[in-house]
Amino acid sequence: MKVLVIGPGGREHAIVRSLLADPNVSEVHAAPGNAGISKLVPTHAIEANDPDAVAALATKLTVDLVVVGPEAPLAAGVSDAVRAAGIPVFGPSMAAAQLEASKAFAKEVMAEAGVPTAMARVASNAEEAADALDTFGAPYVVKDDGLAAGKGVVVTNNRDEALAHAQSCFDAGGTVVIEEFLDGPEVSVFVLCDGRNTVALSPAQDFKRIFDNDEGPNTGGMGAYTPLEWAPEGLVQEVLDRVAQPTVNQMAHRGTPFVGVLFVGLALTSRGTRVIEFNVRFGDPETQAVLARLKTPLGGLLMAAAKGELDKVQPLRWSKETAIAVVVAAENYPDAPRTGDRIRGLKKVESIEGVHVIHAGTRLDDEGKVVSAGGRVLAVVALGTDLVEARERAYDGVELVQLEGSQFRTDIGGKAARGEIKVQTPGTTAATKAKA
Ligand code: AMP
Ligand code: GLY
């Protein structure tokens, strides 16, 4: 099987790496890729958000499957163009990608499908925003309605700051979604969908804020680990039964079947499991950790999803080890990241047992040297017998990465490794436990 992977980031590097380990995958291409990807497979310098350009490349390369990584090409209709060219594609249509591209649309589908999520209101001016903020009270949650690469959400106790974020979205011609605040730990569950059937991958936890202890602005994600030893038993089944399958059924019912990954972002609140958001693609950097543990060959799985054959797939096989990804970001990320700096030490990083490097914002300069080219530059991914060992290995690796001004969080997976994450699910309060 010949596969073309679309996208420039860490998620795509991880996908390419896993595809190359699939015995049924004979050839992989990527567009546009990055420095890490170009060391593994041929890359093609096309505009990844241009549906016709991607379809033309896929046709020219005579690939059997196209895997679309990021949300932007999906929202632009890349999958539709590839499908129209008669090539199977893993990634939703432009219409189905609205589940991520519009938070208001996602809320509408969740309401139709009975999926548990935060109460929310759409506001399109300052008056409506103020009214919604006062309805739900602090902490305030204000989300840009459109695609914002994980950076369009403000969660704050400061009403003026919440209003100011809403105003900046209105000024840019957009609307906002204002929500009730959800307490409790967050979980990312990736569900493979073929339009009808659903298969869940192992849950992961992401770290969205730039600084330790979840301080500072939101980013695309600064690190992740999987599996989650502390997650309630039955979480994955609950996500399939109450979230993914009803959503897939509803999308099919609407005439816009969902094919690809439904990324379910959850909060495990004291009142039960609630969806924070949907994305329509693999999470970054969760994928770097999740795929490091997946033993089922990836190419066959994504092809089954693309062809509507997920019901024929055997139960997934996973490594018993724990995986962690720690992101090394450029100076000034997430504002205006510094780029163009040499990155050194990566060979040494990969000489550590169980450790590999996944590139994100990197490119090769004129001399063929790896330089930074984006906010999140790379992730050090480590496997270990448990989270403690995986963390040690990953952070040993991070210390060896040489990139001027770079930053990383020191607490990825820290609380979980110390057994400090508590989920207070309804029905498991001290009182009901005592009775049982
Ligand atoms: P989103 O882009 O919707 O995933 O939001 C980004 C981040 O904002 C989430 O990962 C959460 O940490 C936070 N967030 C979003 N919605 C809520 C909510 N209703 N309550 C609490 N935190 C939220
Ligand atoms: N890591 C979260 C995301 O990919 O949106």
Structural key phrases:
436 residues, alpha+beta, Rossmann fold, Dna Ligase, domain 1, five-stranded antiparallel β-sheet, four-stranded parallel β-sheet, 16 helices, 33% helix, globular, binds adenosine monophosphate, binds glycine
Verbal overview:
By secondary structure, the chain is of the alpha+beta class. Among the domains are: about 1-95, Rossmann fold (3-Layer(aba) Sandwich); about 120-180, ATP-grasp fold, A domain (Dna Ligase, domain 1). The protein is globular and about 55 Å long. β15 (about 260-270) and β16 form a beta hairpin. It contains 16 helices and 21 strands. Helix content is about 35%, strand content about 25%. The structure holds adenosine monophosphate (AMP) and glycine.
DSSP E strands, number: 21
Please give the count of helices.
16
Unreliable spans: 429-436
Radius of gyration: 21 Å
Largest sheet: number of strands, sense, barrel closure: 5 strands, antiparallel
Q: Provide the β-strand percentage band.
A: 15-25%
Distance between the termini: 53 Å
CATH architecture of the domain at 2-93: 3-Layer(aba) Sandwich
CATH topology of the domain at 2-93, which one?
Answer: Rossmann fold
Which CATH class of the domain at 2-93? Alpha Beta
